[in-house]
Design goal:
Blueprint: E1 2-7, E2 25-30, E3 35-40, H1 50-60, E4 65-68, H2 73-81, E5 85-88, H3 95-105, H4 107-110, E6 120-123
Parallel strand pairs: 1-4, 3-6, 4-5
Antiparallel strand pairs: 1-2, 2-3
Length: 124
């Protein structure tokens, strides 16, 4: 499973960002390899098709689940049409905390929670 968590910065200790399309960073976590990739969201400076472009970006990385705090109706529909599950989280903690909590609820399907230091982190 590949999970995208909306973030305020490029690593798992960054704060969780509650806004989907306006998140400064998307952290991509692969549950199989335990690898974390950070992608800067360049669409935040635009006023047009922000959600659409964000969903296209995530689709190109084969994301299966998005964890965020809020997503508008259009973004929700775009994610659904792209076969990406949306998980709404009300946490205000770090990305690590949010991801660990999510993985613990899915433990039977995904394995153990994210380690303090992921296997590898790449920034794009």
């Amino acid at each position: 499973m590949k999970i995208c968590i909306t973030a305020r910065g490029p690593d798992t200790e960054s704060g969780f960002e509650p806004h989907f399309a306006r998140a400064p960073w998307f952290l991509l976590f692969d549950t199989r390899t335990r690898q974390v990739d950070a992608i800067r969201n360049g669409f935040t400076v635009s006023d047009q098709k922000i959600g659409q472009n964000a969903v296209l970006l995530l689709s190109s990385h084969n994301i299966t689940t998005v964890i965020t705090g809020r997503a508008g109706t259009q973004a929700r529909n775009l994610l659904m049409n792209a076969h990406i599950q949306l998980h709404i989280c009300e946490s205000e903690g770090s990305v690590h905390e949010v991801l660990s909590e999510f993985l613990l609820t899915k433990k039977g399907k995904t394995g153990s929670p994210v380690p303090e230091q992921p296997a590898e982190r790449r920034t794009r």
